[in-house]
Design goal:
There is one protein chain. 31% of the residues lie in helices and 19% in strands. It contains ten helices and 14 strands.
């Protein structure tokens, strides 16, 4: 498989290796299965793109390693990562983000050695859904949904998000709490193209607000398993101390049992939908009130959908969520 080699060692470390050391920076969108109106006309299927069809990837899936074109792989990713009921321009933005993330992984060496270039595990690379399984999920509207997915890849053939001429870490998430988060808020290092921006989530985002409740014993068991130094004696109301929240609503730090924890740590320990949360003690239990879904960095998928509904094209969506980037065709020759 071809590789991109035109990057200095220092830039390579800063832009590729350090972010990949972070926890898997992605989350699947909540799938929507709402059908189009019954009188919606059949969507025309466009011819496949030349760039995405000109080179192949080795994709590790449950059944083993499969060889497919970049276009075929991206179709499977878009099927899995964004509801096909979304607007065409939102699906196009998802295809560009998915293509860019794939090239980023390939340029950095990926996680699979010589076995494969990418895989279908969203905790490692990106989720993947084959056409037959997706059609079964979509039912009577499978033909139109499949056309939208394939068109999203064809309409953006080869288009890649670049910063300094290099594919970016094009992470995305389901929904934000009105603002996305900078990479530095969530992970250990910041990236110039992953900065906090406004995100018009719109109405009707599934489970935009969520609630998670724990008894004191459940809370104590989870926290002490990773932070045995925490002092969780005395009344539950006295367990929680100082709380620092960023301007975009993300919990930067909260003190629990005398231990200062990042909001992302709390999110992970208690399986919260995001790190934008409030904590209350109700009837003796600890209750988290959470807004949004995902790590909050990069493109919000429901924000992209709302932008598309408001008339934005996929380029406008991409350049809104990824700061200071350019979007251009990135050909296989540039991977050599």
């Amino acid at each position: 498989m071809k590789r991109y080699l035109g990057v200095s060692a220092l830039l390579f470390c800063l832009l590729f290796l350090l972010p990949l050391a972070m926890a898997a920076p992605r989350v699947l969108a909540q799938r929507q299965t709402e059908p189009p109106e019954e009188d919606e006309p059949k969507i025309e299927l466009l011819p496949p793109g030349e760039i995405d069809g000109s080179y192949t990837l080795r994709v590790l899936l449950d059944g083993g390693v499969q060889t497919m074109t970049m276009g075929e792989y991206l179709q499977g990713v878009v099927r899995a990562e964004m509801p096909a009921s979304f607007e065409q321009q939102a699906l196009c933005a998802q295809a560009v983000a998915a293509r860019t993330y794939t090239l980023y992984k390939m340029a950095s060496g990926g996680n699979h050695g010589g076995e494969a270039d990418v895989c279908g595990d969203h905790t490692c690379c990106q989720a993947y859904l084959d056409r037959e399984t997706a059609a079964a999920n979509w039912g009577a509207h499978a033909e139109n949904y499949e056309a939208k997915v394939e068109n999203a890849v064809s309409l953006t053939d080869g288009q890649t998000i670049l910063y300094g001429g290099v594919p970016v870490l094009a992470v995305f998430h389901s929904s934000s709490a009105g603002w996305t988060k900078s990479a530095g808020e969530v992970w250990t290092s910041d990236l110039p193209y992953l900065q906090s921006v406004s995100s018009p989530e719109g109405e009707g985002v599934p489970n935009y607000y969520s609630r998670a409740e724990f008894t004191p014993e459940e809370f104590r068991t989870r926290l002490l398993a990773s932070h045995p130094e925490a002092d969780l004696s005395g009344p539950v109301s006295g367990w929680f101390g100082e709380r620092q929240v960023s301007e975009d609503g993300n919990v930067d730090f909260v003190t629990v049992g005398g231990v200062q924890l990042r909001g992302t740590q709390i999110r992970s320990l208690f399986s919260l939908r995001s790190a934008t949360f409030e904590i209350e003690v109700q009837d003796g239990n600890i209750v988290f009130f959470v807004t949004g879904y995902g790590h909050g960095v990069g493109m919000s998928q429901y924000g992209a959908q709302q932008m598309a509904l408001d008339g934005s094209g996929w380029r406008d969506i991409i350049t809104h969520y990824y700061t200071g980037v350019t979007v251009a065709a990135y050909t296989p020759e540039e991977l050599s």
